[in-house]
């Protein structure tokens, strides 16, 4: 972008973050309902790809990496957020999913107890189970979202800091929720969400 419009990389980076600021998901959106999938993923790179002195201990399970929670309604919209700890996933599900909805997750213990508020169905990835119930019970939709996020990071940004991770997650979420729109209406849509001004000082604070 910097090369195409003849600005510095710093200016291009700021401009793109202002667009991501407009693309953020509003917290007052109506809760997801019906059949919903939820999962967490870790962002931070593979330990094997790092220099030996940069590798952390106990990397299994995402230790030392940033956690992103995703919730997607079947045939509906996606919500994704960077959460400080994986164990807080359940509270975010409760904030975003209507009670009594059908909730599908893997067997991760962070989702334990959600059966009190939802019809909670799980697949056991640890034993190689990815689909059951005649192809109805699975988390393939939210897993495809993680594939999009990882490809965006690896293929476009190469590296992002935990500080700005939510902005990149918002960008991916906004694109996903408007995947069926043509370019012109999609651009008009993002312009309609521009509220306030993101200053450079606030961005780097």
What radius of gyration results from the CA coordinates?
18 Å
Strand content: 15-25%
Strand order of the largest sheet: 3-2-1-4-5
Uncertain parts: none
Secondary-structure-derived class = alpha/beta
Domain module tally: 1
Account of the protein in words:
- Strand 2 and strand 3 (78-83) form a beta hairpin.
- With 205 residues, the chain is an alpha/beta fold.
- Helix content is 35%, strand content 18%.
- The strands form 2 sheets. The chain has a 5-stranded mixed sheet with strand order 3-2-1-4-5, sandwiched between helices. It has a two-stranded antiparallel sheet with strand order 6-7.
- The mean pLDDT is 87.
- The protein has one domain: 2-Layer Sandwich (Nucleotidyltransferase, domain 5), CATH 3.30.420.
Which descriptors would you attach to this protein?
single chain, 35% helix, 7 helices, Nucleotidyltransferase, domain 5, 205 residues, five-stranded mixed beta sheet, alpha/beta
Briefly summarize what is shown.
35% of the residues lie in helices and 18% in strands. The protein is an alpha/beta fold and 205 residues long.
Layout of strands and helices, then pairs:
Blueprint (H helix, E strand, L loop, with lengths): L1 H4 L3 H14 L12 E9 L22 E8 L4 E6 L5 H8 L5 E5 L12 E5 L7 E2 L4 E2 L1 H18 L7 H13 L5 H10 L7 H5 L1
Parallel strand pairs: 1-4, 4-5
Antiparallel strand pairs: 1-2, 2-3, 6-7
Helix pairs in contact: 2-5, 4-5
